[in-house]
Input
Amino acid sequence: MSDISTKQRTETRVKTERPKLHKVILLNDDYTPREFVVKVLQSVFRLSEPQAQSVMMTAHQKGAAVIAVYTQEIAETKAEEAIALSQHFGFPLMLTTEPEE
Ligand code: TYC
Output
């Protein structure tokens, strides 16, 4: 005989931590052409052309700009991709990542 309807069930609730998000930060330099920075932001980070222009100009004027936030692995992979792409074209463009507060 099945006791499925009367059996007490204990529910275990496991608290799932949300993965911390990491910022990808674009750093200014004196040599990388503005148009190249915009292309990298569009191709690697999928920014629209106006968004890419805006982020590029913020880095150009203030020294650094947050591009976007991702989980740690994606943030680091995208930063590495952008740096590799820039090095391939002989530009010194630099990006860093840091955890969000
Ligand atoms: N400062 C560069 C120039 O005048 C352009 C530039 C902008 C480079 C933003 C990097 O993250 C950067 N050619």
In short: The mean pLDDT is 93.
